[in-house]
Amino acid sequence: MSSDSKQRPIRVAVVGVGRFGRYHAKHYAANAQAELVAVVDANPEAANAIAAEYGCAAFYDHRDLIGKVDAVSVAVPASLHFQIASELQDAGLDLLVEKPLTDTEASAEALMLKAESKNLILQVGHIERFSSCFRALTGKVKMPFYFECNRISPWNERSQDTDVIFDLMIHDIDMIVGLAGSRVTDVSAVGTRLFSEKVDLANARLTFETGCVANITASRVSHKVERSLRVFQPGAYLVCDFVTHRIFSYSMKGDIRKDGIDSIASEVTNVPREDSLGNEIEAFLTSVRHRTRPTVDGRAGLEAVKIAGQLNESIERHLANLYRQGAG
Question: 132-273 maps to which CATH number?
Fold first, then answer.
C-alpha cells in the first residue's frame, strides 16, 4: 500500500449475508479502519436489507466487487468458498474466508498457494483463536501431553450444508493444533448420521509427533450446549469452559505422595468477555493494512481442512465395516 492508502479506510465488502455474514457487515460498518462499500448475496432481498441497514451498496454477484474494494469477507456456504475466493484472488483482493477454508484439501491448498504466490492476505475465520478464553489459555499451556475436548449443541437446520467435523469440530482441531505446537502424525475417528445425510456426531483421536494425544467429541444433536477443553501437562491440569468464560487450574505445590490432596493448588480465572468476531476482523484489517501474516493464515486453514478430511475418511471406513457386519 502507498502512504496515502495506509491512512485511508480499507474498502471492504461481505459476500454472503446469511446468519454469520451479516455480523461481518455490522463489524466492518463500525470499524474505523474500514469502509463498508458493499454487501453481496444471491438473494436480492437479503442483500438489499443489509445494505439499507448499513448504508452501502447491494450486489448479487461477487464479481461486481472487482475494482471497487480492497478486501472481502467470504461468508457463503463452504461448498462455494473455493469458486468465489479463487475468483476474488485472481482480481488481487485480500480475503477473510469463514471456516472451513474450503471443503476439500486440494481446493484449500490451491487458495493457500495462490495467496502466497500473489502476496495476498488470506485469513481463515477460525473465530475461537480470537476469543479471550483462548488467549488466556495459551498463556497457561506448557508441554501438553493430553487434550480432551467437547463441543456439543442442539440441532440447528443451518447445519445441513456440511458434516459435524467441518461444521463444529474443525474449531477444536485448529485450536488444539495451535496449542500442541507439533505436527499431527495419526488420526482416527468414529461417527454416525442421525438427523441428516451427513455425520452429526463424531469422536476423534489425534496423535502428535511429540506423543501428545487429543480426544475430541463434537455433536450437533445434543439437548444442551457445552464447549470445554481439558489440558493435561507436567504437574498441571487445566479446564477451560468457553461457555462460562472460566479457566480452572490445578497444579502441584508439594509432594502428593506425602501430602495427598493438600499438595494440589487450585485457581479459577474468570476471563473477561470480548467480541471474538470483532477481534478477528480487527486482526484481518491490520494484516491488510500492514501486509503482515494473519494469526490464522492459509496454511493453518489448510491443515485444519486436511485433518478434518482424514477424520471423515476414518469415519466412513468405520461405518462401512459396521454395515458389512450388519449385513453378515
Answer: 3.30.360.10
